[in-house]
């Protein structure tokens, strides 16, 4: 057998490929013993760990079996080898974990159902004993032992089918999932898995095949991917208890405060107990949250929903009349507040239109000693959250979201950071820190709060942009979610040679609008990573994710989420999936206008290229229809105007059949802007040319979420 020296970087895969090829070519026959790990390592010129990883993959495929104390032996030409030809994609690496899990959910349900019909009472009793052993491992905190026993539990189910084919299928997928098991053992709650396994065994004992199948499918769905707030909190306690969960700069102390995940979970439990004592019949009540973003706000969000109430985050920056209308619309029963809004808007507490409902101190949970018992969400499709979103005219609609909605995009939001960790050369246990500057009533900040807790990363709260650089220096961070105006300011500082002020911050997740590709390219060229995202409040921010750092795709808002369906209707982007909201609160007409047969009509016009990248071209409700009959997107022209360094803001509209632009810039830069527009017009078709310019001395009006207000 001729083994070639491994000289490239993907050494483990090359070792696997060569060994696999030798076995399938017959160089090693059935029953032959493979050379020892030491011998193979010497022949390949690699480490024993690399060889061991390759052997584990071969074992999972059923091509070899490893006997304790004896070595590894080639298996005969049986089903395992055939499956090896059919499913090589399962061994492409960590990126395929989602695909493998989907495959598992397809096959392990039938495996469990057949096992229920064919297993003997003795075998079911043995499975119960195995479950008891798993519970002891979980109670002792032995993650490695639990992962191994978890794998053995599924293998026993496959053996109980009496089908060699079923057992071979399981060997294939189990081998592919071993590394995922080891990674997930730290992230999952063993108690979540054990809860479903108990139901599996109970169903087997009752010979209820349908219930056994449902339980095993639910275990796979919920063990590897946290899918409810209850699981998230239990995961904080079981997987990351000693990690930092949240940081913020304490103005009174003049120092940074940190909260560990075990204490974060305990405070959430305290908040649940506090609400149950102070809000009669908590379940189903609508509780408004009106406070500065920060740690108490985060605890309140979790606490309200875990107490069974409907959380209603409210926009702190809105004036009182606008906020009062939203409170009335959302049927808010009481408010959790820190008193800061009353200082900012006296009409909140005084005057004829003041708030007359009960107010609770959002920080009072800290004085509670009782840690409330939590339970799994009884109905994942029930209303859990109302978030207000603004349209381009400044109107508000209450977006209704369930826990299923909230957790549907979390795979998309968490998986790319595994790739980033490898690209940056970080070890598997490295904890990212996210610098959070967006308000928690913004879907990007709220969904990040959940995704970071699932991943065991830290959130560093900056509650005042005026102290941006002070807080960033005090709380070094790797990642920050940004909106266009904020990234433009950062880009300006970087280009002026002030990049050192950002510290170790080098990854930006960009949402809320399209971004100037030239600006993104500038940052990428200087060592920053840019992840563009696309989503709406109505989809929990789910929609697209663009991690490409090449110029060809920088204008795209991302690839489609594999868990969502997409289509274009007359150029409008439509999406369907678990992340799509329940509807607008008390507004059936607005709901019917955008939700049809489960498809959410985003209002965004777009195109999708052959590689699956989404490119936004405008808003349907913003399109300008000219007297000539031509349709022009104002966003397209605004994006072109934004490329002029002198332009701070630009709003394009139609007036008397002409395309007009309203621009803010320094007074001394107006001639520069006029010259730029003249050059731009020469590159545009006649019907798209800007024929009127207006300069504004003050910032252009925007919605509470920072979008240009057009009407």
Automatic annotation (TrEMBL):
InterPro entries: AMP-bd_C_sf (IPR045851), AMP-dep_synth/lig_dom (IPR000873), ANL_N_sf (IPR042099), ATP-dep_AMP-bd_enzyme (IPR050237), GntR_C (IPR011711), TF_FadR/GntR_C (IPR008920), Tscrpt_reg_HTH_GntR (IPR000524), WH-like_DNA-bd_sf (IPR036388). CDD domains: WHTH_GntR. Keywords: DNA-binding, Transcription, Transcription regulation. GO terms for molecular function: acid-thiol ligase activity; DNA binding; DNA-binding transcription factor activity. Residues 9-77 form the HTH gntR-type domain. This is AMP-binding protein. It comes from Candidatus Faecalibacterium faecipullorum. The lineage of its organism: Bacteria, Bacillati, Bacillota, Clostridia, Eubacteriales.
